[in-house]
Design brief:
Blueprint: H1 8-26, H2 29-47, H3 54-62, H4 65-100, H5 107-116, H6 121-130, E1 132-138, H7 147-165, H8 170-188, H9 200-233, E2 246-247, H10 261-289, H11 301-313, H12 315-324, H13 329-342, H14 355-371, H15 375-392, E3 398-404, H16 405-417, H17 428-440, H18 456-475, E4 480-486, H19 491-503, E5 507-508, E6 512-513, E7 516-521, H20 524-528, H21 530-538, H22 541-549, E8 553-559, H23 560-567, H24 569-589, E9 593-599, H25 611-616, E10 626-632, H26 634-640, H27 643-666, H28 674-696, H29 700-707, H30 710-715, H31 736-745, H32 756-766, H33 770-783, H34 785-800, H35 803-810, H36 815-840, H37 849-873, H38 880-897
Parallel strand pairs: 1-2, 1-10, 2-3, 3-4, 4-7, 7-8, 8-9, 9-10
Antiparallel strand pairs: 5-6
Length: 901
């Protein structure tokens, strides 16, 4: 059976032709012809029919400001449309694979394999009981598109889906194309670049959209698919809660002074209102299905008791409901449930105190239906809603609070100074002792709600903790129960947060602790000191009591972005791997359960790549079942914008975690050859040294500023927080996102591969037998998931790099700086590409055909945008219109590369 009427080639061709028509009618025939000339010349050069890009450069140099703006807009909109075509092709691949049973990383394959390996129902139950996957959405500014643009693109995507999947008459097909035509016309006239910096509320609304419009709907189907295959293979296995979604949008204060308590309050309130209304809508649908006649069905005493309790709770409403739904007990119950939900955000009594009570009512309906032979109705209508309520609660997504450790230290110091305690002068041991005693004593030492005359930083921190208690009272502890500390480097940094929470009433030991305190380890000093930091905490009386109230589970966040920026790709990955194992060892020694929180970005350079592969590559010792990871920027849109793709992502992530947990139970300590570890250490040491030499070299910061569009990116209204931590001009001060974004724009994706070749060559040169050493690396790639994933991810960054285009940007730098750095970068790239191909045994860098095809399809169209950007960057004085065009090229290249930071 043919599932689809279209192909990616057809979508690209027809959408491109439609854009051409719009371009010609909305601008001029001359503009259309200019775009076509640039497009065909770029293709001709890529295909070898042109010896040089000079015709493209010459034509760009001749453009008037108006023409340049049209060119930038044309290619940007083209990439937006092509991204839709490729998204549709991904959906086709998923649907076709499910139909033909050819998809990998699926529940049915994994469950069958587990059964074949001798896993029984009890063992599978134990694995599932351990597993919890927690995607955490951040507001990190890596999404270059405006919300208005995304909305128009989503509308076009929906029309293409109808063309592809529905049987249509010619008239219906023509009507859809008229709608697409109108949307593309509107898209052409829509401003692509933000004129204002988004506010934290905008970012929270963006995250909320995906939770509300995609994930809420697909989570039930994800569970249904797993339940179906498990039931078929194993029978009586109870599928527990396996997903929980969390968010930093509206609560992440690290480096963002605009995230105020008011923003957090608004986010909490809005998210609760949204999810409660979603449940009320679902109960309406359920009411239409549960029309069973009470005279013919015995709903059972448990259900009847709950219904009677509702009648007593709402006597005025009871008679109205009885009149409307006579002898329809399920509908009566559902109407009462809708009323209780309506009062969650209301001053009237009778509301649900929390999601647990709502779920109990759903469970009562579920059991009653099963007792009456209504298995099909329960499975189709009630079970998905139970899963939604279990997953999203009344919070939609639980918020994590985050701030920099320096701010906590300053707030504690200033607050204690009012009590005549000089915290700043205390050493680490003295600070730990003071904080511990203060937490354990009953009387508070400070009052966060009345800080007195303190600095703005201290006021923000103390007022936040005072509000944290109010938030938990109003919205429930689960709505905001995690506090992450950026740049944690000492045990006292963790105890400072516990102390502030204690003083605010969020913590009352030994009986209650309302937050998980999560150290974020991201510097080399912190990662190497993980055992020192965590060991002191686990031995600390106050912290041990707090941990016990939180289920004795310690969450630790690992920062991939800053680790990479500090040490380079290979050294950072090895450091993270080793320190994960160290964390597993220290938590195991203290009988504490570890939950790792992987702070991954969207790009390879920031820990990105396929999440299922990343989960499978984690050391066995660290796979406790619970895992948490960040999702951000354009990665959120790519993974969760389309329901089919969102469901597939959830399936792959859960599938990988189930497989990893089974592997960890079978082999608690991953078997890694000593020779492999030594090889990695040699490579990482050399790679880290090479990387730091580059960053610390005189003139490198100046070269970076001249050979990339970093100064443009810093001024873009990508996100609500500043691009740099301070006003200093240094790589260290720059945030990881603009660092990666800049190199990606210039097509020299240095953060994803630089020093890889230096590291590998150091190992080969140190070996007594270089050929044998190379065979060892090939064996490592074949048999060690960590090394395979690391090398394959580097290959993606290498494949996306284009050194010819990077040369154009290098020409912008002063000649002395260019000659100092660019030949070295090119040599490192070429050697890394050669080594990756040799070790992997592949002719192509990219192992996935679809990505290789995507790059071939996109590269000729990105080239003119890059050359136009270079031309504009090279101008010492730009008009306001040229500045707008330059910013638009950033959006276009980001769309073409499908990646920012």
């Amino acid at each position: 059976m043919e599932l689809h009427d279209r192909s990616v080639r057809r979508d690209v061709r027809e959408l491109g032709a439609l854009l051409g028509d719009v371009l010609e009618t909305q601008t001029s025939t001359e503009s259309f012809e200019t775009v076509e000339e640039l497009r065909t010349d770029a293709i001709s050069y890529r295909e070898g029919d042109l010896d040089t890009r000079n015709p493209i450069r010459d034509r760009i140099d001749e453009l008037s400001p108006d023409e340049a703006s049209v060119i930038a807009r044309a290619f940007t909109v083209y990439f937006e449309l092509i991204n839709l075509a490729e998204e549709r092709e991904r959906v086709r691949a998923v649907r076709r694979g499910r139909q033909e049973h050819t998809l990998e990383d699926t529940f049915d394959r994994t469950v069958s394999e587990l059964a074949e390996q001798g896993v029984d129902g009890e063992q599978l139950q134990a694995i599932l009981d351990d597993v919890l996957v927690e995607p955490t959405f951040t507001a990190h500014p890596t999404e270059a598109r405006r919300g208005t643009v995304k909305a128009k693109l989503r509308s076009i995507a929906e029309h293409i889906e109808e063309l592809d999947e529905r049987r249509l008459t010619d008239r219906e097909r023509e009507a859809l194309w008229r709608k697409i035509d109108a949307e593309v016309n509107s898209l052409w006239g829509t401003r692509q670049v933000r004129e204002r910096r988004p506010e934290p509320t905008d970012e929270a609304l963006n995250v909320q959209w995906y939770l509300e419009n995609t994930l809420f709907d697909v989570i039930g189907e994800t569970y249904r698919e797993l339940e179906s295959v498990v039931d078929e293979e194993f029978g009586d296995v109870e599928i527990p809660k396996l997903f929980e979604f969390r968010s930093w949008a509206g609560s992440d204060r690290d480096g963002n002074p605009f995230v105020t308590p008011e923003v957090t309050s608004e986010t909490l309130s809005r998210q609760r209102s949204v999810v409660v209304e979603k449940y009320r809508d679902e109960l309406k649908v359920l009411s239409a299905a549960l029309s069973q006649d009470g005279a013919r069905y015995d709903t059972g005493p448990a259900f009847t008791e709950r219904l009677e309790a509702d009648r007593n709770r709402f006597p005025g409403l009871a008679s109205e409901i009885e009149t409307r739904y006579p002898d329809e007990p399920y509908r009566q119950k559902l109407r009462f449930m809708r009323e209780r939900l309506a009062r969650v955000d209301d001053v009237r009594p009778g509301e649900y105190d929390g999601p647990e009570m709502f779920i109990e009512d759903l469970d009562a309906i579920h059991r009653s239906l099963l007792a009456n032979g209504g298995q099909a109705v329960a499975a189709e209508f009630v079970e998905p809603l139970r899963r939604q309520a279990s997953t999203f609660g009344f919070a939609l997504a639980s918020l994590d609070v985050r701030d920099h450790q320096e701010n906590h230290t300053e707030a504690v110091a200033e607050a204690l100074e009012r009590q005549e305690i000089d915290y700043r002068e205390l050493d680490e041991e003295e600070r730990i002792e003071l904080l511990t005693d203060a937490i354990l004593q009953e009387e508070p030492v400070i009052d966060p709600s009345d800080p007195g005359l303190v600095s703005e930083t201290a006021t923000r921190v103390l007022s936040r903790f005072a509000r944290l208690a109010d938030w938990q009272d109003e919205y429930g502890i689960q709505a905001i129960d995690t506090y992450c500390i950026s740049m944690t480097e000492e045990s006292s940094h963790v105890l400072e947060v516990l102390f502030l929470a204690d003083q605010a009433g969020v913590v009352a030991l030994p009986d209650h602790c309302g937050i998980d305190v999560v150290p974020l380890l991201e510097t080399e000093y912190a990662l190497d000191g993980a055992e020192r930091i965590m060991g002191r905490l686990f031995e600390n009386e106050a912290y041990a009591q707090a941990l016990a109230t939180r289920g004795n589970t310690q969450e630790v966040m690992l920062g991939y972005s800053d680790s990479n920026k500090e040490n380079g790709f290979l050294a950072a990955n090895w450091s993270l791997y080793r320190n994960q194992k160290r964390l597993a060892a220290i938590t195991d020694a203290y009988d504490v359960d570890l939950r790792l929180f992987h702070g991954r970005g969207g790009s390879i350079s920031r820990g990105g790549g396929p999440m299922n592969e990343a989960l499978l590559a984690l050391p066995n010792e660290t796979v406790t079942g619970q895992v948490k990871f960040t999702e951000q920027g354009e990665a959120i849109a790519e993974k969760y914008g389309n329901p089919d793709i969102a469901e597939r992502n959830l399936e792959q992530m859960l599938d990988a975690q189930v497989r990893s947990r089974h592997r960890a139970l079978e082999e608690p300590v991953e078997a890694v050859e000593d020779e492999w570890r030594k090889a990695m250490q040699t490579m990482a040491d050399a790679a880290g040294e090479s990387y730091r030499e580059l960053l610390e070299a005189d003139g490198f910061v100046q070269y970076f500023e001249q050979a990339t569009p970093i100064t443009v990116i810093e001024d873009l209204n990508l996100g609500s927080r500043p691009a740099s931590r301070t006003d200093e001009r240094s790589v260290e001060d720059l945030r990881a996102i603009p660092w990666v974004f800049s190199w990606t724009q210039s097509r020299c994706i240095l953060p994803g591969w630089y020093s890889l070749a230096s590291g590998i060559d150091a190992y080969l040169e140190a070996a007594a037998d270089e050929e044998a050493a190379l065979e060892t690396l090939q064996e490592m790639h074949d048999e060690w998931p960590f090394f395979r994933t690391t090398l394959d991810n580097a290959a993606v960054a290498l494949a996306r790099t284009d050194m010819e285009i990077a040369t154009e940007y290098a020409e912008l730098a002063d000649a002395e700086l260019r000659e100092e750095f660019f030949p070295h970068l090119r040599a490192e790239y070429e050697r890394a590409s050669e080594l990756v191909r040799t070790i992997t045994g592949r002719e192509s860098l990219e192992r996935r055909e679809w990505l290789e095809g995507s790059l071939e399809r996109r590269n000729p169209y990105v080239d003119p945008l890059n050359l136009l950007q270079v031309d504009l960057l090279d101008r010492t004085h730009r008009t306001p219109e040229e500045e707008r065009t330059l910013r638009l090229t950033v959006n276009g290249i980001a769309a073409g590369m499908k990646n920012t930071g």
